[in-house]
Specification:
Chain lengths: 647, 339, 205
């Protein structure tokens, strides 16, 4: 058969799902087809989005705990004035590791991990669009994190802050490898983040269940789409600028050297062009969590769905026009500053609209105060303080006093912990039954919520005061007699309360994994498609691909679900639909487990790490990388019956 | 909400007590910093009201009890229905936040204009050059013979608008005296400037506010705002060359300082020591602190600093040298004469 | 699933591969083009940002790059679009013979381009370590060279693949279609870079 004939060949006569093959018998066969091999090689070869998603989340939470311990160390140092518990060098390394770990190794990866896990289940498909690429991205992320922390243990950790300003981080003022290690960690994590963004965008656009038009997608899927597109346009900036840092160190380029036509502010522009969208990349998925939780526990669909979607899109676009508000003190022209003040204030409007919609949903519905809802309330009470302190510093005259002080430390933690971590903890509690098949303890959940909520306020509210009272950022101590003792001591106590709360949460998770009450597919009686799969879902997610007719599919039909049928059962297969109207379009072969993503990471990681020491590593390293990638993409011998197989 | 009301009271108490600090943004002791306090108050009032509106609405939405078929839930079959009251409230809310933000932006704009007006006719020209980790301060009037050079301190006559030109010799720093004005970054390869119009006499403290390396924490500035008469007296004293040593010990110190390593980095006007790399020491003993605010100026601290600067400020550019005890006595005795 | 399935459409007749927006990998290629395009756009922004500080660009006393090698390069790469388009058209018609005949050209032409590129590096009249102008010029050229390099490796692998029996599978033709699409991105990205390296430094002397 010529290829043209093969393309038009009738479908092979193989077992397919349908009225003749359904129920437990179908599920057993799908289980065999989709499951990966057991053992270490099978674990390293997994391309199941659920496994990869859980790996991302667990790894990110471990980094969160490690960065949290660093924070506790700093708080012990700052509890008293003129303390010498930590040397200035150790303190500088510690705040650098804390910020870099939290931003690059926790915040974005945990959100992407949740997105990787949830997106296929929410849109009604069997896997993400590029499973091996996603597996590769996890190994790359892990490698970058390990490289950074091994450097820390070996006492060569970066020490110029998570933002690594030039020329301080350049070859003249930071000789040695620390700055390069920071920059190369960026390379690993940005490659990972970009790969996941492309995968998620494609999954949402092409693999939605039949009938799930974009206007019927869960809000969390919308937030995933918006943030993934943001990642695509924001992360290249930091990949570029960290590459410039490495090249200044290793081959002597002069990008940031004013003595040779370079400019120190080039760093800040490129970094913050990434850095501002970055914080919305962290925040918008959290608003997606809030929308899902508020919907389920108010017992009604979200009020103002279109408004929420437009707010997400609007925030995503506006986020790219704010970056200069991180540079108000640098002395750029005032006319330019006014634009960025106006833009920074206007970004509060879509966020304010989302807030309204959540509150209106609760108002119109009948809210139940389960642990996830408590985290949502805690989020509103906390995040809004951070948002309003953001409005304050959007004004240039106010920012010129408050920037680079503890007022900003307060602001950023209010928006990141209040605005992202609280919803994340609520989301973990909410989807825990789906992932594990067990419920978390409601009682312990309430205790850890109140502990972290109150501990957070105690830790971070006083920082608004110490900032106003003249305490700059990134200082390892402060003089006695300036009134800074009380706020700092309160912050230290609060930080330890937060640490205890995190420990309680982890204990709840671990305890519930083994002894939690068993959960059925839909313990919360929620409306979205992931609650139609079993808890935990089989490797194939859905026995039959569902058909969707509204935004709340599981709240429409009583105990039945419309499905399509005819997909293969003996080989992994999923359905592609059209972008706008989600009509069935193609049958796409599923991807078999593969070790090549892991092996490729080893090749890439060796090249990247060695290039810290010599640029030639990239030239030589390209060879094993090329070999690994070629082996990855080379297809296996096609099977006899004509339908293709991707391995 | 009880926890936030309690914290509001604590905050107010702390805030009130902080107004008397030497390094606080709430001091308002210059035109620039008092403009900040005014604008900050306006923003705080508006934002606090908005906050309680939002949190209040949330608590009310959660706590109000909707019975039976009133609620628009999946149980009553109305989970896709929304009331027109909510839709109206959405429009009202959008208008409210748009208007509120615009009003705040306008207030900010007026403050910008006020700051620009205060900067229009500076009468005192100062150049501050930031280094890792100290401040080089030069008063640069039109008359070249009246140039004053000092380090880590600033004297300002009250009521006189000053323009401070800012440069960096190495990395990015930030010049910040919160009681008087907002901060201005100091960027190598660029020249920036700050304007200060002080209104209250007093002693204040400035500090570098942009992370600049190992000893960023110890890069402070003593700021004295004084009457015009006192400022002129200070300036006149600064214009004098260094006092000649009067005791044999001080003379021995003079010999050491002006002929050995010290003179490579430090300048003492009227002596052979004219190094330009470190702070000017001509009138060191008239200052309140040494090592950029790290240590108060006392005999003991002078001993400690000269003998072993690396133990006081590790990483600073002044190396620890092996100085014999009798030389140390002489050096400190000489430095204490440099008033 | 605990919910009872109600069977709707039968999807077994749907094809298993498609071109352009129907293909998953097409979206992946679009995503990577967006990423790399953004990267290039940011380097262009860096170029103009650094230029805005200068009175002269190229800064005195440097001479602007010699345009001979770069112009030859541009002519060759634009000419390469002819076989590229022929391959793309053949791919959507599943014309394996034409694809097998023409794809080796897309392996050979970049070799000539690499030679010309080597001469271009030599014609820049500045080193990457001399100053920021040199750094950004070299950055533009190095990034684009990497661009061609990685696409060339892709094309070599694809060419080899098409010569084997794997080449008969319909899916491979969407791979060819997407590879040709990506080559268009490679020379389209080159055009503004050519202007920034060879034209702009001559405008502000």
């Amino acid at each position: 058969m010529t290829p043209a004939e093969k393309a038009k060949a009738p479908p092979a006569k193989v077992p397919r799902d349908g009225p003749d093959l359904t129920g437990p018998e179908l599920e057993a066969r799908l289980q065999r087809t989709w499951a990966r091999p057991r053992g270490l090689i099978g674990w390293l070869s997994s391309v199941d989005h659920k496994e990869i998603g859980v790996r991302y989340i667990v790894t990110a939470l471990i980094f969160f705990a490690m960065a949290g311990l660093l924070a506790l160390h700093m708080r012990l140092q700052l509890a008293r004035p003129e303390s010498n518990l930590m040397t200035p060098e150790l303190y500088n390394e510690t705040f650098t590791m804390h910020g870099s770990t939290m931003m690059f190794l926790f915040a974005v990866p945990v959100m992407q991990g949740m997105q990787i896990y949830l997106t296929p289940l929410m849109v009604g498909t069997r896997n993400i669009a590029f499973p091996r690429l996603t597996a590769f991205s996890y190994w790359m992320y892990l490698s970058g994190g390990l490289m950074l922390w091994i450097a820390h243990v070996l006492n060569v950790s970066p020490d110029n802050g998570w933002f690594s300003y030039m020329p301080l981080a350049g070859p003249q003022y930071s000789p040695g490898e620390r700055a390069n290690i920071w920059a190369q960690m960026i390379t690993f994590t940005e490659v990972a983040g970009l790969a996941v963004a492309v995968t998620l965008t494609t999954t949402i656009l092409k693999q939605r269940a039949p009938g799930m038009t974009l206007a019927r997608m869960p809000i969390f899927a919308w937030s995933t789409l918006v943030t993934s597109v943001m990642v695509i346009f924001a992360l290249p900036a930091i990949a570029l600028v960290s590459g410039m840092l490495i090249s200044d160190h290793s081959v002597g380029t002069q990008f940031f050297n004013p003595a040779e036509n370079g400019d120190a502010l080039l760093w800040q522009h490129l970094f913050w062009f990434f850095g501002h969208p970055e914080v919305y990349i962290i925040f918008l998925p959290a608003t997606g969590f809030v929308s899902e939780i508020v919907t389920t526990f108010s017992r009604r669909s979200i009020f103002g769905y279109s408004v929420v979607v437009m707010s997400l899109v609007g925030t995503g676009i506006l986020a790219f026009g704010l970056w200069v508000h991180h540079m108000f003190a640098t002395g750029l022209p005032c006319v330019g500053y006014s634009f960025f003040t106006a833009a920074s204030m206007s970004v509060a409007i879509p966020t304010g609209l989302q807030l309204f919609c959540w509150i209106a949903t609760m108002w119109e519905g009948r809210p139940r105060l389960t642990v996830p809802m408590l985290y949502v309330i805690g989020f509103v009470i906390t995040f809004v303080i951070g948002g309003l302190s953001g409005v304050i510093i959007a004004a240039v005259p106010l920012d010129l006093q408050l920037t680079d002080t503890y007022f900003i430390v307060a602001h950023l933690h209010y928006v990141l912990i209040g605005g992202a971590v609280f919803p994340l903890l609520g989301a973990i509690t909410y989807w825990f039954p789906k992932v594990s098949g067990r419920m978390m303890s409601e009682r312990m959940g309430k205790i850890s919520f109140w502990t972290i909520f109150l501990g957070f306020q105690l830790a971070f509210f006083p920082m608004h005061i110490s900032g106003l009272m003249g305490m700059p950022r990134r200082v390892f101590t402060y003089p006695a007699g300036m009134g800074l003792e009380l706020p700092n001591m309160l912050s230290t106590i609060g930080a330890f309360v937060v640490g205890a709360a995190v420990l309680l949460f982890v204990i709840n998770v671990l305890n519930s994994l083994f002894r939690g009450a068993p959960a059925g597919p839909n313990p919360w009686d929620a409306p979205s498609l992931e609650w139609a799969a079993s808890s935990p879902p089989g490797p194939y997610n859905f026995a039959h691909i569902p058909v969707v007719e509204s935004r709340t599919p599981l709240w429409d039909g009583e105990d039945s679900l419309r499905v399509v049928h005819g997909l293969r059962v003996d080989e992994p297969e999923l359905l592609l639909t059209t972008v706008i109207s989600a009509t069935p379009d193609l049958r796409e072969p599923g991807v078999a487990p593969s070790l090549w993503p892991f092996l490729s990471t080893i090749a890439v990681a060796v090249a990247f790490v060695c290039s810290i020491f010599s640029p030639w590593a990239l030239a030589f390293g390209a060879v094993p990388v090329g070999i690994a990638l070629t082996a990855w993409f080379w297809p296996k011998t096609p099977s006899g019956d004509g339908d293709p197989v991707i391995v | 909400m009880k926890p936030s009301r309690f914290t509001a009271i604590v905050v107010a108490g702390i805030a009130i007590s902080s107004c008397g600090g030497i390094q606080t943004a709430l001091g308002g002791q210059a035109v620039q910093s008092s403009d900040f306090v005014t604008l900050f108050t306006v923003f705080m009032v508006v934002c606090t009201i908005m906050y309680f509106v939002i949190v209040g609405a949330t608590i009310w939405a959660v706590l109000r009890r909707r019975r039976g078929s009133e609620a628009c839930t999946v149980e009553t079959g109305k989970h896709k229905v929304s009331t027109s009251a909510s839709r109206t409230a959405l429009v009202a809310w959008t208008t409210l936040i748009a208007v509120g933000l615009s009003a705040l932006a306008v207030a900010s704009f007026f403050t910008d204009r006020s700051l620009a007006a205060a900067a229009r006719n500076p009468k005192l020209a100062i150049t501050v050059t930031a280094n890792q980790w100290w401040w080089d301060v030069q008063y640069t009037p039109d008359e070249p013979s009246h140039i004053i050079r000092t380090a880590n301190e600033l004297h300002l006559p009250v009521g006189v608008p000053a323009e401070i030109t800012l440069k960096s010799n190495d990395v990015i720093h930030s010049f910040w005296i919160p009681n008087l004005a907002g901060k201005q970054d100091v960027i190598p390869g660029r020249v920036t400037d700050a304007q200060i119009l002080p209104r209250h006499i007093g002693q204040y403290r400035g500090q570098c506010a942009e992370f600049c390396g190992a000893e960023h924490t110890n890069m402070a500035l003593d700021v004295t705002v004084e009457s015009i008469a006192d400022f002129k007296k200070w300036a006149a004293a600064q214009l004098q060359p260094a006092a000649a040593p009067t005791t044999p010990l001080a003379a021995a110190g003079f010999n050491y300082v002006t002929t050995r390593q010290c003179s490579v980095c430090h300048n003492i006007t009227g002596t052979p020591a004219n190094g330009q790399l470190g702070p000017d020491l001509t009138h060191l003993a008239s200052r309140k602190t040494i090592a950029a605010g790290t240590l108060p100026l006392t005999t003991g601290n002078l001993y400690g600093w000269v003998a072993d600067p690396q133990s006081q400020k590790p990483g600073s550019n002044m190396p620890t040298m092996q100085i014999a005890p009798q030389d140390l006595h002489a050096i400190v005795a000489y430095l204490e004469t440099l008033k | 699933m605990s919910l009872r399935p109600v069977f709707a459409d039968n999807v077994s007749e749907l094809p298993t591969s498609g071109f352009s927006h129907r293909s998953l990998t097409w979206w992946g290629v679009i995503g990577f083009m967006a990423i790399e395009g953004t990267g290039f756009a940011l380097v262009f922004a860096t170029y103009f940002f650094l230029m805005s500080h200068e009175q002269h660009w190229a800064p005195q006393p440097l001479q602007p790059p010699n345009p001979l090698a770069g112009t030859l390069f541009t002519i060759v790469i634009l000419a390469s679009e002819i076989p590229n388009t022929m391959i793309k058209k053949a791919a959507v018609k599943y014309d394996l013979a034409t694809v097998r005949r023409l794809l080796p050209w897309m392996v050979a032409i970049p070799l000539l381009l690499f030679v010309l590129r080597g001469f271009e590096f030599n014609s820049l009249n500045v080193n990457w370590y001399d100053n920021a102008y040199g750094s950004v010029l070299w950055a533009l050229l190095v990034l684009h060279t990497t661009h061609i390099g990685t696409d060339w490796v892709d094309t070599v692998v694809l060419c080899r693949l098409m010569m084997t029996p794997h080449g008969e599978a319909p899916r491979r033709f969407s791979d060819i279609d997407e590879n040709s699409l990506y080559w268009r991105f490679v020379w389209l990205a080159w055009l503004p870079i050519y202007l920034l390296i060879y034209l702009v430094p001559r405008l502000f002397r």
